[in-house]
Amino acid sequence: MPSSNPMSAQALKSKLISLVKEDLEKIETALHDNLAPHLDLVSNIAGHLLFSGGKRLRPLLMLLSTRLCGHTDDKGAIQVSTIFEYLHAATLLHDDVVDGADVRRGQSAAHTKWSAPKVILTGDYLLARSMRLAADTGIPALIDVMAGITEEMSQGEIDQMERTGDIALTEAQYLEIIRRKTAVLIQGACRSGAILAHAHPEKEDALDRYGYHLGIAFQMADDLLDYTADATALGKKTGADLREGKLTLPLIHALDQATPDDRQFMESIIKTPDFNTDQFDQMVDKIIHYGGIDYTEKTAKNHIDKALAALNTFKFSNAKTVLTTVAHYAVSRKV
Fold it and tell me: What's the whole-model pTM score?
């Protein structure tokens, strides 16, 4: 995806890994230490997803946000940061059951190895564990952010479920769905970093804006990958969103631009979840032809520009450099 940053996706990824390698190792250790289930089954199911190669973007963003605001207690911040990975894992466990997804992060989804009730209850445990860790901070504002995140994400999932296969879904409705399903968690992680650091409201609001626009762009990039990435690299089947009846921005825009005949063809694919490879390839060709890929890339890039503008509130620091790199990488990645 085009970006104002001239570095390639691979170069950005390498730079980012070099900048955060030690932080990621500490976050990984804290995720193990803080999980603390009383049952081996819960540990096995949670660990199946938690420790299967996730990016740890959300806890990393919170840690970097605390540093950006002058917080120096990395150990305490890392402990709190695990909240956001547990919340993320909980939603993925629940979503895969709801969507009937077979693959997650390149391996079998948890509900294909354990019963759906066990997987759902493990997700519930991770949600409860997140709230316990938030409560342990004794900071009401942080607890309020966590409660708001869980409320919004639940409503986002319900809203998306209600609109499954809705060919009349608008761009505005799509944006509201991804705000609730993805952006609020990234936004909350960034804002919570400022809260933990007892930052000035101006800095808290700036990080809130950064997180919101980054989250929207990140989800748009994910939605593009469903049509453009290699299935092996992606870690799940391409076309999965389409098979599940989820209309995302590339398709929404293409439908709006299509001729009546082409729109009719595209709608027929949407209504046929067992479409074959040739049909999917034809759908991708239509999306490209009607500018769905280009439009989504451009829109995501606009959100990244707004995220970067929010960082202008802060003076230069290593944390700001990393957050800038994260933003550029979010829309250039191939997986």
Answer: 0.90
Q: Is 38 exposed, middle or buried, given 0-12, 13-18 or 19+ CB atoms closer than 10 A?
A: exposed
Burial 51-64 (b: 16+ CB within 10 A, else e): eeebbbbbbbbbbb
Query: Which residues neighbour 271 within 8 Å (Cβ) at sequence distance 6 or greater?
Result: 165
Residue 231 — very low, low, confident or very high, per pLDDT cuts 50/70/90?
Answer: low
pLDDT in tens, 279-328: 999 999 999 999 999 999 999 999 999 999 999 999 999 999 999 999 99
* Secondary structure class of 4 (helix, strand, coil): coil
| Element containing residue 5 per DSSP (H, E) | none
> What does the block give as tokens for 39?
């049952």
What is the pLDDT, as a whole number, of residue 3? 43
Joined together, the tokens standing for residue 151 give 């409320």
Alpha-carbon distance of 77 to 64, in angstroms, equals 9
Indicate the pLDDT class of residue 2, thresholds 50, 70 and 90.
Answer: very low
**What's the CA gap between 199 and 190, in Å, rounded?**
12
Q: Which residues of 269-287 are buried (b: 16+ CB within 10 A; e: fewer)?
A: bbeeeebeeebbeebbebb
- The enclosing H or E element of 22 equals helix 9-35
Element at 237 (helix H, strand E): none
Token code pair at residue 88: 């993320």
Q: Rounded to an integer, what distance in angstroms lies between the CA atom of residue 24 and that of residue 55? A: 9
Chain segment 87-133, per-residue pLDDT in tens: 988 888 887 777 666 766 557 777 877 888 888 888 898 999 999 99
What are the distances in angstroms from CA 195 to CA 8, 200, 206, 213, 335? 34, 9, 12, 19, 31
What's the rounded Cα separation, in Å, for the pair 39 and 257?
A: 53
Average pLDDT, the chain: 88
The answer to whether the CB of 206 falls within 8 A of the CB of 190 is no
- Lookup: tokens for 137: 């901070």
Overall size of the chain counted in residues: 335
What is the helix (H) or strand (E) element at residue 70, kind and residue range?
none
